[in-house]
Design brief:
The complex is a heterodimer of chains A (300) and B (202). With 300 residues, chain A is mainly α. Chain A is 61% helix and 0% strand. The N and C termini of chain A lie far apart (54 Å). Chain B is mainly alpha-helical and 202 residues long. Chain B has helices at 9-12, 24-49, 60-63, 66-92, 95-125, 134-165, 174-200. Chain B is elongated and about 55 Å long. The chains are: A mainly alpha (300), B mainly alpha (202). Chains A and B meet through helix 8 of A and helix 6 of B.
Chain lengths: 300, 202
């Protein structure tokens, strides 16, 4: 916003709001640390990703505060410095958290653990790769490396930093291949996850892994926010019956929503290419899809 | 929307009860009608905002044919009556009457659509296109959206009629017919508003 020439008043407002973002972000970081503080730390792959996420997000948060200085930000705009910042926030903040969640809930979703060994290889390669890819971007950006271009003059003196970033990107790629292999191989592994493999306290761990199609046999009655744990004031939740006391009504699966969704991009492609017949064909797919969806039998 | 299976029909005919005790499909349909109110409300509001601001003709008073549209309105009101009779017959289990009134409702809807087709082609002939003036744009979009809703309703009613012919519709799926009725009466009520705002209050 500073580089658009809005004038000093608007720039001051944006400087203020940019600084303000640091406050809720800081509160969140202390939330996460306090959560860890109260917990029983076991360095599983999931926790490694969670801790890595906090650390990387802090780096992204710190470089974010530097954007609040208008004269400094004018230099950073559209350079690799902001690319470095956004990747520490988005990759370090979102992707690492996502990986943590996948390692945590995969046994619940599929009934099979992901390999912890491969998971640790995945974590360390990802962490090294992302820091190698994104940390040098702070320097190359401040030296004048613009974003969104594929080539630059050698005299800019950022070749070494860019090479480091490239190597880091390939390491992230290799780590992700390890991750995908880890996911894929659980297909052929025997089911080995109990209902509550991590000793969790929340309701999803009260039902078998993977959850049955109807999820819960009866709607559980809970007395605390940690229903599976014995706490000072509350006992654990009473176990759920194995078999539903009454037949559970489950709606059947349907292809028609997918077919309807498939028609929409056909319409869009036809409209982009100015081909009316393709638009009409896509519309026909959507109309038939909605019609069959609306009137198909309800039951499995 | 429809329960077509005869097995378990009685057990599942009521779908899931919501916490308010209403069938979940009926509840969802009321929510849908709520969003439809917003859609038609915004189109009617747009018509009113641009009312009397057309710079070129044809203007509403030159072109709107109130006696003809009164007939269309009467036709649509009668279709609502037929819909009520259809639902009552299906709930009684009198499928012979149920089939008849479903078909009558759909046919009255078709008569309305025929009237709208004639009206639109007459207006175009008189020189009122979608982009001629503000009246043309707002009038065609508002009444056209309503006509599209009537078309969907006619297809829906004919589908139920065909299901009834095949013996797949009975008192066990009266809720399906009831929801169709909700839609049909809603479309009818919207037309009463449009008829009043566009045709009667000029």
């Amino acid at each position: 916003m500073f580089s658009t020439g809005l004038g000093p008043i608007a720039d001051s407002v944006f400087a203020g709001t940019t600084m303000l973002i640091a406050i809720p972000t800081g509160v969140k970081i202390f939330n996460w640390i306090a959560t860890l503080w109260g917990g029983q730390i076991r360095f599983t792959t999931s926790l490694l990703f969670a801790v890595g996420f906090i650390a990387m997000f802090v780096i992204g948060g710190l470089s974010g505060v530097t954007h609040a200085s208008a004269p400094s930000d004018l230099q950073q705009t559209d350079t690799y410095y902001v690319v470095a910042h956004i990747h520490y926030v988005l990759f370090g903040g979102t992707i690492l958290g996502l990986f943590s969640g996948i390692y945590y809930w995969w046994p619940k979703m599929t009934g099979r653990f992901l390999s912890e060994g491969m998971g640790k290889v995945h974590f360390w390669l990802t962490l090294i790769g992302m820091n190698l890819a994104f940390f040098p971007m702070h320097f190359s950006g401040l030296l004048g490396m613009p974003r969104r271009i594929y080539t630059y003059p050698a005299e800019l003196g950022v070749t070494r930093f860019n090479q480091l970033s490239t190597i880091g990107a390939f390491i992230i790629g290799i780590a992700t291949l390890v991750f995908f292999w880890n996911l894929l191989r659980t297909r052929w592994r025997p089911s080995n996850a109990p209902a509550n493999p991590w000793g969790g306290a929340t309701l999803e761990w009260a039902i078998p892994s993977p959850p049955p199609v109807y999820n819960f046999t009866v709607i559980p009655t809970i007395a605390s926010r940690l229903p599976l744990w014995q706490t000072e004031r509350h006992g654990p939740m009473t176990p759920l019956p194995d078999r539903p006391p009454v037949p559970i009504h489950v709606p059947g699966g349907s292809w028609w929503p997918m077919i309807t969704a498939f028609g929409l991009p056909i319409i869009a492609i036809g409209a982009l290419a100015h081909l009316i017949p393709i638009v009409l064909a896509g519309a026909a797919v959507v109309i038939v899809g909605i019609y069959r969806w609306a009137f198909e039998p309800f039951e499995m | 929307m429809a329960y077509n299976t005869d097995t378990h029909a009685v057990a599942v005919a009521h779908g899931h009860a919501t916490f308010m005790g209403v069938d979940n499909r009926k509840m969802a349909f009321w929510a849908f009608i709520g969003s439809e109110c917003l859609l038609f409300g915004s189109l009617i509001a747009t018509y009113l905002v641009y009312k009397g601001r057309s710079l070129v003709g044809p203007y509403p008073h030159e072109i709107l044919n109130i006696p003809f549209t009164s007939f269309s309105t009467f036709d649509l009101l009668m279709s609502s009556l037929a819909m009520v009779l259809a639902l009552a017959a299906v709930q009684r289990g009198d499928m012979k009457k149920g089939k008849l009134w479903l078909l009558v409702t759909a046919l009255l809807g078709l008569v309305f659509l025929g009237g709208q087709f004639w009206e639109f082609s007459h207006f175009v002939h008189e020189g009122l296109g979608l982009t001629t003036n503000l009246f043309g744009s707002t009038f065609y979009v508002l009444t056209g959206t309503h006509g599209a809703h009537v078309t969907v309703g006619v297809i829906w009613l004919l589908t139920l009629w065909i299901q009834a012919l095949r013996g797949k519709l009975g008192p066990q799926n009266a809720v399906t017919v009831e929801i169709t009725g909700l839609y049909w009466h809603f479309v009818d009520v919207v037309w009463i508003v449009i008829f009043t705002v566009v045709y009667l209050i000029q």
